[in-house]
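User: I'll paste a sequence; please echo it back and then give the predicted structure.

Assistant: Echoing your sequence first, then the prediction.
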Amino acid sequence: MNKGTIFAIIVILVLSVSGCADKSLKYYNLGIAAAEREEYDNAIGYWRKSLKHRSADPETRYNIGLALLKLEQYAEAEIEFRKALEYSDYDHEILYGLGKSLEMQGQLTDAKNLYERSINLKPNFVPSHLGLASINLKTGHYRSAENNATTVLHLEPFNLEGNKLLSEALFHQGNYREAYAQLQSAKNLDPFDPELHLILGKVTYARHMYRDAYATLTRARSLGASNADIYLYLGLTLFNLENIEDAETNFKLAVFKDDKEVRAWQGLGRIYSKRKEWNKALDAFNKALEQDPEDETSILGVSFAMMNSGRFEEAIARLERLQARSDPPAMAFYYLGHAYMRAEMLEQAVEAFRTFIEVWDGDVRLLEEASGILKSLGI
């Protein structure tokens, strides 16, 4: 939830406590003043004093929950929102607050249900639509996330969070041109927002605009972006700019932030393969496989490292299993051809390279190489 949303709601709630006892109202308003100064701990302290004089007050509980969200104390926020619901169980704002506290604790199904209940009570309540967009992004329902974010922008065209969520949803669906256009129009909403620059950097990377991507991602980092994503995409961008040393540094930072980041481990594997450091490459690709044992890129990487380490039979076994899939990657046949050749299994190598030539539609240099190998074998 952004600051503007929180305190727009809080200001409304100030007006609703005018009938409170004097001491309760005094501490309540002191809490409001502290929250507006972003002194959330002090605000919570004042609101707790207010509750001593008026314990059955859902609005004060709600405000404490919002402040705890800002302090990233999500379990504590959940407690306050649940207490608020005891006194006001049909309040769309409290349902949203509870949903947000659960979302941030990873309880996505329950959070989604609360956002939907909030919207049923007030269909044009923007924060709950944002919440649904956020959850659909996290669960891979990108089209639904796009629809949720589009609803937000129909209600509030200049909503920064809505613009970011829509751009991210478009990015994950491969709609890079639309995402890029969306972000260009959103940049003026807050030129200093690190998340916006991070998303733009990811989109420009996907569009192969590597120098622009590097400049944008560097800007995002300077503005405070420091999650695994920023280092992953800096690593990917630098690798494509052939700045291998800095790419390695950023991939390492990505796995330091999140050691389950498959693409960062794969990036390190590619770097070590490029340097012919086969044992390190094998270790990196195996780390990626630990997170996703079925990932084709990681299997190919492990097989390539094994093949270059003289472990031909192991490489062949992995590649043959990959080849047997219903829709195997074309590179499986290319690597199999090389593995068979090194194992002196020439008939199998010929068959693998022939299949590769039939199915490959990428870099023509690989086709020329495969054709050259077949000619050298007298085919």
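The CA atoms of residues 64 and 313 lie 63 Å apart. Residues 1-20 have pLDDT under 50 and may be disordered.
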